[in-house]
Each structure stands twice: as structure tokens, then as C-alpha cells.
């Protein structure tokens, strides 16, 4: 996407070039820098991650094992646990076969479909320390391997214990943002709005939200650069978050969105970056989350419909989070 | 409870309608909003939870398993653990029965009241990895099931380990609020007071308390809305919390309670919202708690009696927390 | 200790009685209150706990099990673990005896000194899930008890896991305060000083210390009350805490210690309350600790000797922490 | 390194001797003090530790077991685990030999290379609670030892569980600093710069960096003392840390580096101390790290080359972190 004459006239404020202004702007760029002019991807993904790829990291850094095991889905997590269990047993079964399967005595190989499976089940009984004893090591070598395997087994399950606890106790805000943000009338002006709900019964307190807008703007020489604006919210803090909250950025003359058209937002690759921080009261854990709306996730002339059920003020229907209706803008 | 002419005259300050004032008020509504005019329920329950119901959450969100298992009582917790243990053993006993109970060898079925119970006890010995071996799997199929079950068993107890640790290490303020708050004389005015004690030997430091009052007030058009006031405390922070603390809101002319009668508090569905934050010194954990007093939890013309035992200044009788005596108001 | 005429004249500043002053003073009383006039005990013990006893707490609150098990010494901890292990095995041995010791088969009673010890060892093998199987339950009843015991065993050791982790990971500042504080010359005045060392290789950063002095002072009517003063330190924050730090309160005209004699400090039951907060860098844990010096833990006309070894600026001898030498005061 | 006439003239600002200035300077010495004039060692090592040795600590403090086991490398950690496992089994094997190896029955000694190894393997089966039962204790004494050993075993592996979890969940910033810092042109002046990258996919937010310079300066009487300066950064905070960040200290007239030559930096034993703090978003953990550049880790007249791959702004090559190219200084 190259700069073109049309776009250069889009913005009513002429880009300033003084170094002071430049430094001031860098303060609000959140760390992304002004050179990200590729409009094919967003800065912040809707799951809160950032769009940066790393090359040539060390294997250890790339694997980032603990982090992955903690953040992957439960289905994946149990799949990998089971896979590791089967793999380890297969590995040790192979080692017992090499050592001498005949020294694992107490049961007839044929009953368990041959010596490999006898070794496999003996391995599983050793790894989990269940140790029935109907198969037992009857030589120095297999006894040694079994002594080592039982230690490995305990460590592996020690690790699983830590991972399960880490997954459960990890501070995650169970917050859902509305899929679309809206431009709706607000008092005697218009406003850009989005809303969010707490999907769980956990008490969230001391919520605080900051919103920035990022868009491409042309420099005097015609090259594009990415500029960032902090957006003022009608309210950016609440002490309690009973259930839902609509965030409102009124589009007054001071707003960078003042006089903006949907086409301009698209041409300038506009993205709204949201950063939320709160306190989960159950464990008094701080929870952080990020979200973003791009220009194509805005409904113009829509407003959110009430989320309460039949005027019962203390009953909230989570399914109504995304419900909007058309409304005439001011 | 509908607005009526009498109530509209209750408050000496006329409700203001300017948008500026409205925004200012929203700052102090704590996130509850001004539309909660249903006076049949309180905003904050005395256990610190908030009175909001959710509908249509996902099953996962509604179960909120970890949170529940952490916050339920110990009796419930152990009941569910035992229930899960019996259920899992019954399930696996059924599976062994399907596979072929006769391949679990080593003991006569009759001694254990038939093949089901043999399977059940074998399952329990596998799940807990005790594995005596006097019952042992003697086929490929039952060996496989047992290998899987022992893995599940270890994971389940890994989970239990995490849950037990989570329950114990969860930051909870062992603070008890007096059941009633009082209106008592204070210096040359009156004051609304409540007190609290630290029921445990844990050191709590850096306590900070904020108190808000919420009540229904009529708008100029007669409809009711909920208004919130921050209440000034004679003191809202202490560095140490040796044992007890009486919080005092003096009712000066600036107080929203100035000139209020018990009847007015009831008619306006008044509720006092208390938010406490402190540092538990044992684990240097931040602890948060909430509490609320409604209009019917206030004793007019009562004062708290000393909580010390026989003038021994360093001995506190926790049973005296709620003791008050009548006193004439200023 | 009753007020007497001599003491009333001790302090050059007349106690003020205005309510404003009283409220201001309450701000600096740290939460102890002004009524603790019993001079037989200190406010803060040197291990950081506070001198308050509770009466009539619930059993659960009084036991405060988790807190005790976490904070007791390692010797006590292992003693209680072992005691619990022996007690539980004895209990279950009794239960197996009641059920019928003869149904635990596989070994001759006589070899293990009779049926009770057979039951005891079977219990220990079940509780720890070692389950050799050379003793095994051979009836429905003993099998059921064993199934229950093995579950209890796993939970108990799950608990032990959590306790061990809790003990190790608990944030504790390994800081040692000098046993005595000193009054030593400082620049052209005198100063009250104490020092502290980091006894471990853990990096402590962002240390911050606050010091208060508390003493009894007479009111105009002759009754004693406890007054608190914040003491200004020449420096109360450091970003790094390489090894040792001497804290200095210069006794200028503004200091409440100005013109004080050792006898006056004793008569007024003076106590210096120290509160320290830092960040342990290994786990990025906040650590808090308290300490106090009473009037009889001050050396007048002493100064601390260097703690470095033979002028090697980067080698610190922890044994020299308490070394002082006499010096003439200004 | 003794003060010499040449060095005394090095600095254009005369050292001031007023006590006020001295106190002001102590504020910025970070806690190191001004007496560390030994130029053979750095203050802060590049792994973030501080150069201080302790003598005469208690054994417990010197071992600092938990801290070491948590911070040592994984290879060392597993080596020590294995060593402890073999040692404990050897110890208990010896105890069983003393008690009477013949009472461990069920297998022929010769198969396992004699009674010691029989005891050793029985010990390992007891310690890990695998308990096959093909070796079992057949006397009161060995049964008692085994009951004790199985308890010890469970505790030891409980400890290992905690250690593994502690190692994994410990907050560590996976940040790599450029090996060299550079002096490069910046706008119309020069600047001292370094850069850093986030080597993992963990989201780091709210980064904040402070930089100090420390160097030896002569007092009027010719003795050297260590002086500290805070360095102003063009920017010291970012809300997001997508991947890389170049820190810039512009050398204006106010900078203590103004007019400095490489020789002067070397003669004054200059060291740049960096302290970084951020929030790891996965566990919402605060992470802290320190780094330092000495005078011999500065490249004069070099600038960093871009770290992006082929102008793809969202792809970062971690190997390019240290790449610089020569450039003419202003």
C-alpha cells in the first residue's frame, strides 16, 4: 500500500515534523514504533498476542515448553500427557527387551501377547509406581533399570502435578468483548463504543482500561508512517465489575476520530488497541488482557441493546452481548 | 417500590440534572450503575459477593470448577473428593467387568462378595497405585486398562495436591465485622460506626478501608434512581492491625447522612458498602474483602462496649465484638 | 506504672489537647492506639510479631493450622509429620484389629510380634501406597478399609507436598538486625543508629525502611498516654542492598529525641518500631519484616565498627555485625 | 590503582565537598557506597548478581539450599537429584544390612549380585513406593525401617515436586542484551546506546529501564571515591515490548559523558548499571533483571544494524542482535 495524493489530504491536521513532537509521539506508540506500515496484518490479535515472529531463537527458547503446556487447551494438554506416557513406556519396554526380557518373571509372556508387551506393562507399573509385583525384575540389570525408571516416573508425575496446578491457578480474566464495536449517538454527539462482560462468577474488582488508536498517516514527503493516539473514555475505571460494562469514547472536536468517515478509517488501516487490567478477587491475582478492533469491526449507526433479561436488573443474558440495533447518528 | 410524593420530599438536596454532575456521580457509583432500583435485594452480600445472576454462560464458565473447589467448605470438598473416588472406582470396575473379570487373578471372587467387588478393589489399588498384587491383571486387555487407570489415578491425585495447596494458600482475610453498625455520639456530633477484628494470629498490615453509601433518590420527573456517596472516615488506614478497629464516619453537615432518620434510610433502601484491603504478612499476600450493612443492620443510639478483658490492654475477647449498649445521641 | 509528678515534667513539649492535634497524632500511632500504657511488655517483639492475645476465638481460628505448619521450625515440622504418620498408622491398625486381623493374610503374625504390628505395617504400606503385597486384605471389610486408607494416604502426602512447597517458597527476608542500636556522633550532631545485613546471597532490591518511636507521655490531667513519633532517617531507601546498611536518625532540634537522657527513655518506656520492606529478586517476591529496639537495647556513646574484612571492600564478615566501640558523643 | 596527578585533572567539574551535595549524591549511589574504589572487579555482573562475598554466615545461610536448587541449571539439578537418590538408597541398604539382610525375603541374593544389592533394590522399591513385593521385609525390625523409609520417600518426592514447580514457575525475563553498547550519532549529537530483545513468545508489557553510570573521581585531597550518575534516556518506558528495543542516552551538555574520551572512561573505571523491570503476561508476574556494561564493552563510532529480516517489519532475526557497523560520530 503506497502513499497516494488522495490519502495525503485525508487528515485535517498537518503532520508536524519538529523533533519535539516526534518524541512526544513516540511516547504514545506503546512500543510498536512508527514504521509498521504493512496494512495486511493487525498489531494486536483478538486473543491478546502481538503479531511478531522470531527467527533464530535457541531451541529452548523456541520450544518455550512450560509456557506452551500452561497455555494450550485442555484437550491438547491431555493428549500430550498421554502421548508422553505411551512413548516413555515404549522406550523403557525397548530397554528391558535389550537387557533381557526373560529376567522379568512371574507371568507367562503369551498371556500378554509376547515379551514386548510384558515389558511394556511392567514399565507402566514401574513408572506409575503401582508395582503389583506379578511381574518383577529378576536380575541385577533389570532391577537397576527399574530403580531408575521408578525415579523418573515420580519426577514426571511431580512435573504433571505442577503443570496441572499452574494451569488452574494461572490468572486469566474470563472477559468477553463484544465482537463488534459501534458508532452510536451519545448525549448530543456521537461516540465509539464497545462493551464487555465477566463470563464467570469470579469477582473482578478495580478494572482499568486504556484505549489507543493507531493509523497510517503521510509525512510531508509522502511516505506513510504509523501514528498512535490515546483515546479519552467517558469512564475508564470501575471499582466493581458486576457483569457488563459499556466503554464510551465521545467524538468531540478533540478526538482524532472527529469528522472521520468509514472509508478514511479503512484507507488508513485504523486499529483500536485495548488494554485491560483488573484484580481477580478469588486469589487476589492481577489479570491483564488485550484486545483490538480493526476498521472492519465497527458498526456505524448501531447501538447496543440492553443485556438484562426482561427488566430484571440483576439477571444478565450473556448471549445478548453482541446484540445491536440500528440507530440514527447525530 | 414505586416513587411516591412523600419520598420525593425526603432529601433536602434537590437532585441536579446537569450532565457534568451526572458524570461526576457515575465516578462514585463503583460500577453498579444508577438503574438498580429494585429494593428487595442488597447490592453486596455479607460474604462479599455481588448480587448478579448470569444466564446462557457456557457450561465451562457456569461450572467454574477450580473456583468452586477452592472456595467451597472443607466438608463439601472432602465429600466431593470421596464421591469422585468412589465414582471412578465404580466406573473402572464396570470396565473390568466388561473386559473379563476372570482375568483379574490371585484371589477368590467369593471372598470379596463376587467379581464386581474384586474389580472395584483392584481398581482402587490401581488408582491409588498401592498395587498390592494379590489381585493382578492376567490378560492384555485388563493390563492395558490398568496401565491407563494408574496414569489417570496419578493425575487425579496430582490435581488433588494442587487443590489442597490452592485452598490452603489462598489469601483470605480472617476478619469479622460486627453484625450491626451503630449510630453513636462522637465528640460533639453523632457518628455512624462499625468495628472489625482480626480473628487469627496472622499479622495484617497496611489496612485500608473505603465506605460508600447507596440509596434511591427521586429524579425531578419522579422516577427513582440509585445514587452513591463516598463516606469520609475519621481514619481509613492503619499500618498495623493488632486486633480490633472501630471505623467512624462523623455525621457533620457535609455528610449525606446529615439529618437523616431511620425511616428515611429504610424508605430509600440505603446500603453501606465496605471495601477492605490489607497485606497478610505470613505470605506477603494482598487480601481483599467486602461487606455491607443495610438500613436494618443499624442500631440507633447504641455504642460498642470495650472488647478488652478486664482492662488488660493486650487481651481481646472475640466474643465481645457485637456487644453494644444504649447511649443518648447528641 | 502510675503517673507521678517527676515524670510529668520530663518532656519539654507540653502535650496539646486540641482535637485536631489528637486526630493528627492518631494518624501516626500505626494502629496501636494511645491507651497501651502497660510498660511491662513491648509493642513489637524482635521476631516481628505483635503483643496481643486473643480469647474466645473459634477452635479453627485458634489452631490456625496452615499458618503454624508453615512458620514453625523445620525440626518441629518433621516431628509433627512423623507423629501424624505414626498416629494414623496406629489408628488404622486398631481399625483392622476391630475388623478382623486374620483376614490380612500372607505373613505369619509371630514374625512381626503379633497381629497388631502386622496390621500396623500393613497400614503403613497402604498409607504410603508402597503396597508390597506380602500382606494383603482377604475380606470385603478389610479391602474396603484399605481402599479408603490409601485414598487418605495420598491426600495426606498431597498436603505434605503443599506444605513443603509453602515453607520453601514463603517470602522471608534473611535480614539480621544488630542486637543493639547506638547513640553515636554524626557530623556535628549525634545520631541514633542501627544496622542490618543480608545474610544470604539472594539479591534484595528496593529496600525501604520506616522508623517510629513510641513513648508514654502525661496528659494535662496527669494520666499517661502512649504517643508516637515518626523518625526522620538520613536515608530510608536503597535500590540495591549489597550486604550491609547503617540507618541513621540525626538528633537535630526537630527530633523527639533532642535533649533526651537514657533515664528519660527508660522512664517513658520508649520503644523504636522498625518496619522494612524489600523485593527478593529470586522470585520477585515482596518481603516484609518488623523489628523493635527498647530503651534497654541502646548503647550510649558507641559506634559500629567496620564490617569489611581487612579493607577488602567486597568481603563482609557477618560476625562483625554487632561489634561496636566506645566513642565520645558531641 | 592509585590516584595520580593526570587523573585528577580528567574531569571538568570540580568535586564538591559540601555535606548537602554529599547527601544528594548518596541518594544516587544505589546502595553501593562511595568507597568501592577497587577497579579490578565490576559492581554488577552480567548475569545480574552483585560482587559481594560473605564470610562467617551460618551453614544454613551459606547453603541457601532452596535458592540454589531453584536457580542452578537443569543439568546440575538432575545430577543432584540422581545423586541424592543413589545416596539415600545406599544409606538405607547399609541400614538393612545392619538390621539383617536375610529377613528381606522372596528372591535369591545371588541373582542380584549379593545381599547388599538386594537391600539396595528393596530400598529403591520402598523409597519410590513402587513396592513390587518380590522382595519383602520379614521381621519387625526391617518392617519398621521400611515403614520409615517409605514415608521419607514420599516426602522427598513431595519436595522434588515443589522444586520442579518452583523452577518452572519462577519469573525470569528471557531478555538478551546486546553484548556491546555503542557510541553512535543521534540526531545532531552523539548518544550511548544498547539494545535488547525478548527471546521468547511470552508477552512482556510495561517495561521500564533505569540506567546509572558509576566512575572513580578524585576528591580535593587526591583520594579516589566512586561517584554515581543517573543517565537520562530518550525513552525509558514502553507499554508493549513486541521484540526489540534500542535504548538511547543522548550526550548533551548535561550528560556526565559530555566530552568524555574512551581513555578517560577506562582510567575512571566507568561502569554502566542497568536495571529492568517488566510484567510477564502469562502469569502476570513481575520480572526484574540487571545488566552492566564496562568501559571495555563500548564500541565507539558504531551503530546497530536493523534486526528485521528483509524489510519484513514483523519478522525479527535474533542472531542480528549484536550486529553493528562503523559510522562517523558527530
UniProtKB/TrEMBL annotation, chains A, B, C, D:
Keywords: Ion channel, Ion transport, Membrane, Potassium, Potassium transport, Transmembrane, Transmembrane helix, Transport, Voltage-gated channel. The chain crosses the membrane at residues 77-99, 145-166. Residues 175-328 form the Inward rectifier potassium channel C-terminal domain. It is found in: Membrane. Pfam families: Ion_trans_2, IRK_C. GO terms for molecular function: inward rectifier potassium channel activity. The keyword Membrane applies. Gene3D superfamilies: 1.10.287.70, G protein-activated inward rectifier potassium channel 1. It comes from the Bacteria. GO terms for cellular component: monoatomic ion channel complex; plasma membrane. GO terms for biological process: potassium ion import across plasma membrane; regulation of monoatomic ion transmembrane transport. Residues 98-164 form the Potassium channel domain. It is a multi-pass membrane protein. This is Inward rectifier potassium channel. It comes from Spirosoma endophyticum.
Amino acid at each position: 500500500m503506497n502513499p497516494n495524493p488522495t490519502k495525503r489530504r485525508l487528515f485535517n491536521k498537518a503532520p508536524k515534523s519538529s523533533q519535539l513532537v516526534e518524541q512526544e509521539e513516540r511516547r504514545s506508540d506503546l512500543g510498536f514504533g512508527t514504521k509498521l506500515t504493512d496494512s495486511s496484518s493487525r498489531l494486536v490479535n483478538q486473543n491478546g498476542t502481538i503479531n511478531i515472529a522470531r527467527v533464530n531463537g535457541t531451541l529452548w527458547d523456541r520450544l518455550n515448553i512450560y509456557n506452551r503446556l500452561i497455555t494450550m487447551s485442555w484437550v491438547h494438554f491431555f493428549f500430550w500427557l498421554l502421548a508422553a506416557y505411551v512413548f516413555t513406556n515404549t522406550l523403557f519396554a525397548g530397554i528391558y527387551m535389550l537387557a533381557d526380557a526373560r529376567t522379568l518373571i512371574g507371568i507367562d509372556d503369551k498371556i500378554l501377547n509376547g515379551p514386548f508387551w510384558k515389558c511394556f506393562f511392567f514399565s507402566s507399573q514401574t513408572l506409575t509406581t503401582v508395582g503389583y509385583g506379578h511381574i518383577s525384575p529378576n536380575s541385577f540389570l533389570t532391577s537397576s533399570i527399574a530403580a531408575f525408571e521408578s525415579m523418573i516416573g515420580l519426577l514426571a508425575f511431580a512435573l504433571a502435578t505442577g503443570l496441572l496446578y499452574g494451569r488452574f491457578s494461572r490468572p486469566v480474566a474470563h472477559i468477553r468483548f463484544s465482537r463488534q464495536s459501534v458508532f452510536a449517538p451519545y448525549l448530543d454527539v456521537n461516540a465509539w463504543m464497545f462493551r464487555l462482560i465477566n463470563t464467570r462468577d469470579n469477582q473482578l474488582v478495580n478494572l482499568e482500561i486504556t484505549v489507543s488508536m493507531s493509523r497510517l498517516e503521510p509525512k510531508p514527503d509522502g511516505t506513510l508512517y504509523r501514528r498512535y493516539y490515546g483515546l479519552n473514555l467517558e469512564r475508564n475505571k470501575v471499582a466493581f465489575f458486576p457483569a457488563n460494562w459499556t466503554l464510551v469514547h465521545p467524538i468531540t472536536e478533540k478526538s482524532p476520530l472527529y469528522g472521520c468517515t468509514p472509508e478514511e478509517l479503512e484507507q488508513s488501516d485504523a486499529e483500536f488497541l485495548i488494554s485491560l487490567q483488573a484484580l481477580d478477587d478469588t486469589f487476589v491475582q492481577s489479570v491483564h488482557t488485550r484486545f483490538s478492533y480493526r476498521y472492519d469491526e465497527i458498526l456505524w449507526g448501531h447501538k447496543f441493546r440492553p443485556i438484562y433479561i426482561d427488566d430484571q436488573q440483576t439477571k444478565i443474558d450473556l448471549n445478548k452481548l453482541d446484540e445491536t440495533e440500528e440507530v440514527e447518528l447525530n
